[in-house]
From TrEMBL:
Name of the protein: Glycosyltransferase family 2 protein
Protein species of origin: Candidatus Alectryocaccomicrobium excrementavium
Pfam families: Glycos_transf_2 (PF00535)
SUPFAM superfamilies documented for this protein: Nucleotide-diphospho-sugar transferases
InterPro entries given in the database record: Glyco_trans_2-like, Nucleotide-diphossugar_trans
Residue span, Glycosyltransferase 2-like domain: 4-133
Length: 328
């Protein structure tokens, strides 16, 4: 079997059928689909099982809620394909995804292949400018300065390598994709990229990735600490690289703080969040590097460092009100 498609699904009754249809509509038919229901409280499991009854290539597994990483790994261990791909239950594929991936893999002989994607609604995302091999230096630059290579769902990886690089389960949350992908990237060294938007990423407003989560800042800090460890281990920790690394880190921390304020976190929650961020070793180290942030973001970082939490919250709320008025 050529491809194993693994879908972690949790309370996805609104989207799971479109997701499954997009796999069954592939122009290449040499695949298996493994849906792992992660303890859904809605009809996700029943809908998935109904598809399994219609198509022998569809398998449904069920587990108590353990998170997306655990669900992906459960599916991976049950997979039989030469290559594994992950597909989130609220997303979908273009009909030619597998045929394009198969063509790219055969042409390149790669162990890992990445493709572009399209936001729904929204724009196409092209992490790299053209099809071809992406060497370690190129993807490392993306790793430290953006989230362009962090996702698991825009890649096809040789199953044996994915199994050998299992990880991220202990960091379930916002950084889970990065912590699954980084060991694979390190193992393969380079990968092949096809510059075609084959994946439809649905921006679900009430999804976990868009909501305020009290431990989000801790998850990001732990993940970026692993990235820094990787940079040091590979002797990629020159001053310019570290400046880009800390620029992204501080920007992510400011996002966490602002998100909490806009979401109406309690005063106690906000206070703990600010104290945590100030206490992170990476946040403290960032002051020694020239951060490539807009002046407004540098000012907000200074407010955090100077413990002017109330003024920070006031400015975030004022900006939110201005944005709301502009939309009216």
């Amino acid at each position: 079997m050529r491809f194993s498609v693994i879908v972690p699904a949790y309370n996805a009754e609104l989207y799971i059928e479109d997701c499954v249809r997009s796999v069954r509509s592939q122009s290449l038919s040499d695949w298996e689909l493994i849906v792992v229901d992660d303890g859904s409280a809605d009809s996700t499991l029943e809908l998935a099982r109904a598809w399994a009854e219609k198509d022998a290539r569809v398998t449904v597994l069920h587990q108590e809620n353990a998170g997306a990483v655990a669900a992906r790994l459960r599916g991976l261990r049950a997979a039989r394909g030469e290559f594994a791909l992950y597909l989130d239950a609220d997303d979908a594929w273009e009909p030619n995804l597998l045929s394009a991936v198969d063509e790219g893999l055969r042409k390149s002989g790669a162990d890992l292949l990445m493709f572009a994607f399209r936001r729904v609604p929204g724009r196409e995302e092209h992490p790299f400018p053209a099809e071809g091999w992406i060497e370690r230096e190129a993807w490392t630059r993306k790793l430290i300065s953006s989230s362009a290579v962090n996702m698991v769902w825009d890649k096809a990886v040789r199953r044996e390598i994915a199994l050998a690089c299992q990880g991220g389960e202990e960091h379930e949350g916002v950084a889970e994709d990065l912590l699954m992908v980084l060991p694979i990237l390190d193992r393969v060294g380079r990968f092949y990229y096809i510059d075609r938007p084959l994946y439809r990423y649905r921006a679900v407003l009430d999804s976990r990735s868009n909501a305020f989560r009290p431990h989000r800042h801790q998850e990001i800090d732990a993940a970026r600490a692993q990235v820094l460890e990787y940079l040091v281990d590979k002797d990629l920790n020159d001053d310019e690289t570290l400046a880009r690394f800390y620029t992204l880190y501080v920007d992510r921390m400011l996002d966490c703080l602002s998100r909490a304020i806009r979401a109406g976190a309690s005063r106690a929650q906000r206070g703990q969040l600010f104290r945590d961020v100030r206490g992170f070793a990476l946040f403290q180290m960032a002051r020694f590097y020239p951060l490539d942030l807009p002046l407004s973001r540098r000012a907000m970082r200074a407010l955090v460092a100077w413990r002017l939490d109330g003024l920070y919250a006031f400015l975030v709320r004022r900006q939110a009100r201005a944005q709301n008025r502009a939309r009216c």
